[in-house]
Structure to design on (499 residues):
């Protein structure tokens, strides 16, 4: 993961160089430490605000270059709107916005974590710092030539000035762990498929052992013995062997059942014999965003030493056309014993998930299961790039995911599951077929996955095709690979399943 920003905390003190970032409300009021720090330029700031019609609206910004009376090279004033309406996700966004307002050449900056009423709470300052860290991410390791004015400083430093340095550092530790998981997920999604094949993905997951995560890699021989023929069928046309990786974090009581997260990891998806069109196919390197999220989540839970037992299981394959590739019309027997008629080899993710979900349930008997997959274009048609589609067999789990989404900004929208849709995937020749046609495509895909889930086990399926990659960029993410879902699921665990 890139270390693009050196982040630290310090007391309120007017900086003598670099960029100073401060915050005001929608009445242009500042906190006491901020007023003192910018006092020599207060009149200039007021005139500039009037000239630019700056009102302190949330997310707005006013910039003063070489402000007279201050030693800093630039003063950035960011509006927060009405302070009483600010939520934790807003502080994260403000941090991202603050970093985005820094010139690329800025090597040093200081952000005053203060509102008109005084210093931000330690938790709010820590959220602000997390936003700074998330915004700083860039995936540029393969660029060998860059313009001089596009090169960031080798050592970029940001100090967050706070009222209680020790409390802010303590609060930030867990948020830094979660941000690290997000950045790991982004790295995985952004990697090209000629680098991140299933074997390499599995190898990289092994790095989690340093954090105390137990990592087990199941190769093709083991998968055959387990009967994961649905998953293996997807990858049989590739020169790269399929893998399933099991990650376990045991931070709870020994006897407690784990929570389980399952990720689709199609490292590249050509569609197989049912090959996709050439336009945009390069984006299919991101078809493993679900597996990337689960890996990033396990990093986050371990790095912050979450008090929970958690299992992450990811199915890693590459879907390629070849003389050995799976054909439309083939019938495979899944690990569950259910048979599947392959109608379209481009409906491959659900085959991977079916076997892996069955395996996770049979082996670990979890409290609940959540799977994530860039599964269908249909969910993008329905929800665009703002929400992930959520399908669930349990109202409590669905409600908890929805609340976690509202708190983090990684929002989900519940979609229906019903027997009427289930009939669309019945097959004439097998127990089911792997696609129910265009109508309700995201729903029939979820109905397919549901056939591999016990009705007694709370389960949710998140279709992240619109959010996992090439999604809407915002103040805390300017990356093609978003790392979506890590903060959502970490919040779910933190709020409801840690003791």
């Amino acid at each position: 993961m890139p270390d693009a920003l050196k982040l630290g905390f310090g007391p309120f003190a007017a900086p003598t160089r670099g960029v100073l970032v401060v915050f005001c409300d929608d009445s242009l009021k500042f906190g006491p430490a901020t007023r003192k720090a910018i006092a020599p330029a207060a009149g200039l700031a007021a005139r500039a605000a009037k000239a630019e019609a700056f009102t302190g609206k949330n997310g707005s910004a006013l910039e003063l270059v070489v402000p007279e009376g201050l030693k800093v090279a630039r003063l950035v004033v960011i509006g927060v709107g009405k302070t009483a309406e600010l939520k934790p996700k807003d502080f994260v966004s403000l941090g991202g916005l603050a970093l985005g307002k820094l010139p690329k050449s800025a090597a040093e900056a200081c952000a005053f974590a203060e509102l008109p009423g005084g210093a931000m709470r330690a938790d709010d300052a820590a959220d602000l710092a997390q936003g700074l860290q998330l915004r700083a991410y860039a995936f540029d390791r393969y660029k060998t030539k860059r313009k001089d004015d596009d090169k960031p400083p080798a050592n970029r430093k940001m100090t967050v000035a706070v009222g209680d340095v020790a409390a802010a550092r303590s609060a930030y530790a867990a948020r830094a762990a979660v941000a690290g998981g997000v950045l790991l997920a982004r790295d995985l999604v952004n990697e090209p498929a000629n680098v991140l094949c299933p074997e390499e993905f599995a190898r990289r997951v092994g790095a989690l052992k340093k954090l105390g995560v137990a990592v087990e890699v199941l190769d093709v021989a083991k998968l055959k013995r387990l009967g994961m023929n649905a998953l293996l069928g997807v990858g049989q046309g590739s020169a790269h062997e399929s893998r399933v990786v099991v990650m376990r974090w045991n931070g709870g009581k020994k006897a407690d059942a784990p929570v389980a997260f399952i990720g689709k990891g199609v490292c590249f998806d050509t569609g197989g014999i049912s090959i996709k069109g050439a336009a945009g196919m390069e984006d299919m390197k991101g078809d493993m965003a679900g597996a990337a999220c689960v890996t990033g989540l396990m990093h986050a839970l371990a790095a912050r030493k979450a008090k929970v037992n958690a299992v992450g299981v990811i199915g890693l394959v590459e879907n390629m056309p070849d003389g050995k590739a799976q054909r439309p019309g083939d019938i495979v027997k899944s690990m569950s014993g259910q048979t599947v008629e392959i109608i379209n080899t481009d409906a491959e993710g659900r085959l991977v998930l079916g076997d892996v979900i069955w395996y996770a349930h049979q082996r670990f008997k979890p409290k609940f299961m959540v799977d994530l997959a860039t599964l269908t274009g249909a969910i993008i048609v329905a929800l665009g790039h703002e929400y992930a589609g959520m399908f669930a067999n349990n109202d409590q789990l669905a409600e908890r995911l929805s609340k976690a989404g509202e708190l983090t900004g990684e929002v989900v929208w519940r979609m229906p599951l019903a027997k009427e849709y289930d009939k669309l995937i019945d097959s004439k020749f097998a127990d089911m077929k792997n696609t129910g046609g265009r109508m309700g495509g995201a729903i029939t895909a979820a109905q397919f996955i549901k056939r591999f889930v016990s009705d007694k086990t709370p389960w949710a399926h998140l279709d992240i095709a619109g959010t996992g990659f090439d999604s809407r960029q915002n103040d805390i993410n300017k990356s093609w690979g978003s790392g979506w879902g890590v903060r959502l699921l970490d919040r779910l665990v933190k709020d409801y399943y840690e003791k």
